[in-house]
Structures are given as C-alpha cells and as structure tokens.
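Re: weekly structure request thread

Next one in the queue (601 aa):
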Amino acid sequence: MKLSPGDSVKYDFKLAWASSFADIGRLAYEEGQVDVEVLPGMAVPSDCRATILLRSKKAIHALSASYPDQTDIRYEGEKRGYQIYSVAFQRLGANDIKIHYGDGETCTLQFFSLEELEQLIDRHAAFIAENQFETAPDDPCYHGLLMWDMTVKSRINAACNPYGDDWWAGGSDEIGLVSGLFLSEKNVYRPNEAELKVLDAYLSDFIEDRLTEQPGYRVHRMVPWFVMFEPWAGHGADDVWRAFNYVHVLNTYFNLYRIQKKFRYSYLKPAAEYLSQAFHYTKAMFSYWMFPEGVGASEYGNMGELTIPLYLADALDAEGMNGEAKWVREIAAAKAGFFAKSNYPFGSEMAYDSTAYEAVYAYAKAAGDARTMEKAVLAAFSNRGHQPKWYYYNTDLRQHGETHWNVSYMTQLGGWVLYDYSLNEGKRDYELIKSAYASYLAGWTLINSGYWNDDPRNIGGSCWVLHAGWEDSSVDVPGRVPLIKQAWQMSGESGLGYFAGLKMAASVVIEHPVLGIYGLGCEVSVKGNVWIIRPRDGLRMRVHDTVNEWSIEIDRNVIRELEADLSSRTIRVSIENTGFDLSEDNINVRSERPWSVMINQ
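Done, posted below.
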C-alpha cells in the first residue's frame, strides 16, 4: 500500500489468547476470518501437490492463481468443517493463491515452487564442484571452494572482487567454508567421483596448505593471513579466533571419513586419516582464545557443532583412537554442563540470534539432559514465522527482525532440532513435525533453478539470504552487494543450511486431525494391513511412520518403495540400485516392537 500526502488509513484489531499454535486458527474462524492450514509448507516441490485446508463462517467462493495457466487447483471436498483444496505449480519460484470469500473479501497465500528436490540438490552440488573450485594456480586461494556471485557470474577471488575487502575472496568464514561442507554432506549419500576429487584437493591444497597454520591446526579467517582486531592481539588471537570456522572444517573432514568408511575409494585417503584430522581441528578449537571473550568454543554454541557431542567420539573409538575419544567426551560433558546451568544458553556474537539452538540441543542430547533439550526445541520452534508467505513460514528470525536476513541457514539448521526431537527422539508432536518439514522445504528456496537468475551460467547457484523488507537496488553501488528480487544473489553462508537440510531429509507419515493418513515428502496408500510408501523427499533414504511407530534408514542407494505389512510385521524395501550392494547391515530399523526386513534390489 502506498499513501499520498494527506491520505490516511484506519485499521481495527483485537487481541486474544490462543492456547497453542493450532488454536490460532480457531480464533481466526470465530472472528469471521479464514482459518488456513497448508501442507507440507509454503515451499512446494514441483512434482508434489500442496494441500490447503480452509474454514470460515463466511462462504468461501473460489481460489485463484497468479499464473492460472501454470497452476492446477483442485477442490478435494469437505471434511470435518474444512474445505480442502490441492494445488500444483508448473512455474518455478513465487506463486500466489488468492482465497475469495465473504462479500468480496480476499486473502493471499504466497507459495514458492521448487524444482524436484533430488535434481535440485544434485544440480547445486555439481555447480559448486564445477564453478566454485578455484583453479588459478596464482590465486592465493588455489583449490579453495569460493563464493559464487550471480550478479557478476563469477566466483569471488583475487581476480574478481567488486566488494573491495580481501575477506570476501579469502576462502574462510561461512562464505568460504560451507560450500565445501554441503558438498561433503551430499556425497555421504550420493557419492560422485568428480565431486569427491574436488573435496580431497580442497582439503589438502587449500585447508591444510593455505588456510591452516602449523603447528597447532590454527584456522585463519582468510588467505593470505593477516592480523585482525588489534585490541585482541594480546590474546594471541590474530585472525584464528573464530570457533565457527573450526567447526565447518572438522565437519568436512568427518564427512570424508564417513564416505571412506562406507565406500573405500582408491583415489581418496584412508578413512582414519580424515577422522584424525577432524579430531585435530576439534582439539585446536578448544585449545586457543576464541571469540567472544576467549570462551567461544567452551561456552557458546557454534553452528554445525552437533558432530562433536553426537558422533565424533564414537567414530574415534571405532578406529582405535580411544584416548582421543575420551578427550572429546570430557570436553562435550563439560560444555553440556555449562549449558545446563545457564538460564539462557543461546549466547552468540550478536545480542539476539538463533545460531546456538542446534549446538545446545546436541550437547544436551549427548548428556541425556532432557530439560535443556526441551529448552532448545521451544526456542527453535518459537523463533519461526507462521505467516502464510514462503519467506516467513517456518523460516528463522534473526536479530534484524522479520524484514531482514530471511531464509538464512538457521531455517534448516534450527529446523533439524525440531526434526530430531520429534522423530528421532520419538516425541511425535504434530506441530513440531509440521514445523520441521516446512523448515526443511523452505531452506531450499534460495537455490537458483532459473527464478532468481535466468542466465544459464548461474543455474544451480545459490542466493545467500533474502531481505523481504528492502527494495531492490536501482543502481550498482561500488563495494555494496546488489539486491535483486530482494535477495543477495551470491552463495554466501547458504551451504550451512543445506548441510543441515540433508540431515533432516526424510519421508514422514502422519495422522492429520482432519485429513487422516498423510505423507510429508511421500505418497502413502493403505490396502488392508499393508501400507505402501513411495518417498519423494530429495534423499529417499529415511522414512518415519509416526502412525505405526517405526523408522527406517538405509546408508546407500535410494528407496523406491516400502511395503509395511502390519499383520506379519514385515517391511519390504524396494531399492533403486545406484551401484552399491545393499544388505541388512546397511539398514537401520527403529521401533519398540520387532520388524523383519526384506530387500528387493
């Protein structure tokens, strides 16, 4: 809305208490508004349909689309007082659905149509390996995985840096470290030889030979090294004080360990070598003065840190590194203890931030601290938007407020907390599951399939964040990041979110209070005692059936279809073979009651 000088608008509003998030819809209904629920979220893959549930005391007349020739709207009938519609989008990107009700009244749902997720994830991984890998031998960041800028159609490096500060091209911090992190996580599930060779060269030639200072595994904030923030010089901090960076590096090494442990490729190093490096970077992080106030490692949650308390020590023990494992467990217990004693354990480099939720939750989980786990879950849940707009709905809120820094990496990294608690920890809370899944989908919206930038050289790249309350840049300002479609069209920190997204990629079967049996990221059909599930979640390796209370995960290949026979308690797993044999040793079934597994390859 734009008002001319002298114009005015009057709004009336009413305040009311809701007993839960679900109860908000009841209040809208009672006030003559439209009670709306959307599944699986406001971001919808193009090969899936969104389900819209509507309820109002006023007549709902019709739904219309902003691109009617490329949108399929179906009325699915009435159930328990709700009018139910399903929608599929052919046009990628932002799509509006307008609800027409009452006496000429309307409300708008703002969706985002995603490319089919499996293709989207693979395309982005290939893009990183092909375009963000620095191949110029004379660049200080040779074999780094640098930030890609769609506005200049180039990686930001020594030869192309329109922003002036060398930090942009230095290969460290989130902007330089998390593209490799995502690429390594993707290859844990779908290994690709070309991408793995890039990752190995990245770790050897850039991380070890250029970014890391020895002795001591000190990770610098850019290449070439320099001394930052002179007042800290007395702490010996130089530019190796940022604990976040150590986490990204150790996670990437740990992922290469996971890959080699499973697949044993001849062109990669032995698995134990990658694991040893992950440990050394972990130890370095806890050995030096870290921002803020020197305790950035021991008293602050660093994004992506879940590996240290949940997985690292067990892996070290498995490789016979028992002393190292003992050290990790002691450090993790101490940090978990600090969080447990803190009234507000979510400290950050900013006054208000969401970056610590995942780490606090992970340390509490490792320590069996249910109270702190729940505290982190409630913080992550309450920090998500619930407006029916794709860039607000279950994306995280940062210190900048809701008009700035939208769809950041914490959309998925904070969403992983909800996913793990509700599904892996078995809490089965419907609102948490719904929020987690919507977060998972929302996080992928910034990968470019042509909506953000239609230049073929940028297809597969990623935006950094969205600034929903800002106007696009009308002119280029030297040293300033352009804003196009309200997005910074450079990869930035986005890979950290995608790293978490792959950890929560799953198909989830729920019993919806209105719809009944419903699949998030999957198709579900029930024939007597046999439940048939066809995953379409982007990974197709994890399934959670919250109705019959079982979960399954495979560590290679993809699931084409599952048949769960409730009478014989047998799960038949039909696999799309991607070149690896699958046995029962590669399948993990979790349930309080026993199930037998049959494999169709």
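The radius of gyration is 24 Å. The longest strand covers residues 105-114.
Next request, please.
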